[in-house]
Amino acid sequence: MGEKVKFRKPIFYKVLYTFVSWLHRLYYRQFTVVGAGEIPADTPVIFAPNHQNALMDALAVLFAARRPVVFLARADIFKKPFIAKILNIIKMLPIYRIRDGYDSLDRNQEVFDSTVEVLKSKMPLCILPEGNHEGTKRLRPLKKGIFRIAFQSEESTSFNLNLHIVPVGLDYSDYFNPGADLTVVFGTPIRIADYAESYRDNEPKTINAIMKVLAENMRSVMIHIPEEHYALTSEICEMYAPNVWDTRNIKREPFNKLKIKQYIIQKVTEAFGQDPAKAVGLSSSLSDYNHKLKKLGLKDCFFQEKQPGFFSILLETLLTVLLLPIHVYGLVLNYIPYKIPILVAAKIKDKHFQSSIQFGIGILLFPIYYLILIALFCLFADGTLTKLIFGVSLPLTAYFAFYNYAHLVKLRLKLRFFVLKFTHPEQYKNISNNRESIINQIKLTINS
Fold it and tell me: How far is it, in rounded angstroms, from Cα 262 to Cα 365?
């Protein structure tokens, strides 16, 4: 099953790490890492991230930490020997659960022994303490495995290992599609040796205590929306956050966005707890507003932004038309390797594996497809420079076509918004007033 951490081809791993890291950076529009300085230097660490987006969570930690990391993953994905070998190469170990069968739980001791050796070698370990993934922006109850491994490792050295658990917050603007924003925040580390005395006195009580500390530290570096009124609170966050940026003159950086959302969530949750009628009133107002937006084919984000003028829209439209040939070129030549991963991922039952499948297949498919296309082009084209330009144009125009498509969608909505504003001013005014009323409701709720 690949329980032993052996890497016979470190050079292969380094090349693979560099290549996949580069592609991972291209997959996300904005990849932001905050608090890397919080990671203790030259000492064993266990990274503890929230788990929302399947294997993409592991990649997020790996490339944010900028170093090799050993991961513990659920054992069922190691069932096929070939897959198990690949996972072992990329430094992943299986962890067995009751659902894998009671007999398999005995194999966890062997895995635990391997993790102790990993930590003693000062290679970081990553354990997703929620146990499984769920595509919601909230922290679920933590499992005890991470703490047992941590204390077992410290016990093996009489608590002289100096092991730290580092909480990690992952925040995706979109779980399923490329071109999203991903923010990784490293939080305040927890030193395991600080709990040595209480652990010797009362192991269960100490594990429960440190579990609460880790949960609190994790919530401080991620978006945590309580289950009650989850959808409503999430919508209020997206709608009201720009008002906070503008009134407080805060730069719209990813970490600032995260902190502002945490502030809004805290205030809204407190207000709903004190007066549930406020949740009912806001839910009704937002439902009516969203119904109007849907009928007009618009989105709230256009009411948040500075309204474009006629000449600005005209210039943007003309520039888009001029660049259309490049878009079509990139779209046609890259459509097959782009579409195949999407079609395969769509068949996966667990939709939160979709981005992992798309990314994994894309890593393999794009290079092979490009080599075949370049080889065919070279058979019919003359001139080294022409061949070189064609080869370079493939990834460049693929990148352009992808993001230009998102721009085209947004431009179409901008034009629709512009037409509404100047051809149906009363209707535009009505929905703008409707929105302003909701903003005031949210403001009163937060400040109550």
Answer: 39
